[in-house]
Amino acid sequence: HFIYILYAFTVFVVFYGACCSSWGDFLLDTISGLVFDTAKEDVEFRAGIPRQLLLQEETTTVATRRLSGFLRTLADRLEGTKQLLSSDMKKDFVIHRLPPYYVGDGAELSTPGGKLPRLDSIVRLQFKDHIVLTVGLDQDRTDEMQEKMVYIYHSLKNRRERHMMGNEEETESHGLRFPFSHMDALQQIWNSSAISVKDLKLTTDEEKESLVLSLWTECLIQVI
């Protein structure tokens, strides 16, 4: 029992420390995505700037007013959105977190068990406190056609013995990614204690089965 209590205390300390990131950090993490979304709809954000502007020693009054106007537009948009592209902070948090508590070799965290999910199955999320669901830009593309993707990161495969050892080069993320069209279905799973696969908000039965199979293979859901 002492070992478990010590483990739980360590998890609390790590969680609290991660949550102490500043609002400034959060702003830096979300602002680029907010600009990306706004620029798709507002042609003013895509307008070219005078080349001479970058050569001037001081920012002109006109440029300052223009930027101030853009910031007001972003603030208005921010108040009306529920989807922020803030995956970097969430990813950083979860890849440095301890895995769920386990006894033995922790096979249940890396090897899916139980029934294979089917269309008529009822599934539920497991280890929810060790998984983050977020939206980010497609990391495989850097061109103007870059689109939103849904990213899922988890700490199930993190190594206890490497935790807080300072080996940043050995740290890696674990998880999945899906098209943004899967967001509603994933939120259904996240927000439900249990849900039928056939009730997921996806176009085809094949998409529904493929989604839950991917989550089950990653040990993120179980069939009940």
From TrEMBL:
The protein's enzyme class: oxidoreductase
Domain ROXA-like winged helix: 90-187
UniProt entry tagged with the keyword Nucleus: yes
Membrane-traversing stretches: 6-28
Cofactor dependency: Fe(2+)
Cofactor binding notes: Binds 1 Fe(2+) ion per subunit.
InterPro entries in UniProt: NO66-like, ROXA-like_wH
EC number: 1.14.11.-
Compartment(s): Nucleus
Annotated keywords: Dioxygenase, Iron, Membrane, Metal-binding, Nucleus, Oxidoreductase, Phosphoprotein, Transcription, Transcription regulation, Transmembrane, Transmembrane helix
Function in brief: Oxygenase that can act as both a histone lysine demethylase and a ribosomal histidine hydroxylase.
Family: Belongs to the ROX family.
Protein name per its UniProtKB record: Bifunctional lysine-specific demethylase and histidyl-hydroxylase
Gene name in the database record: LOC103583371
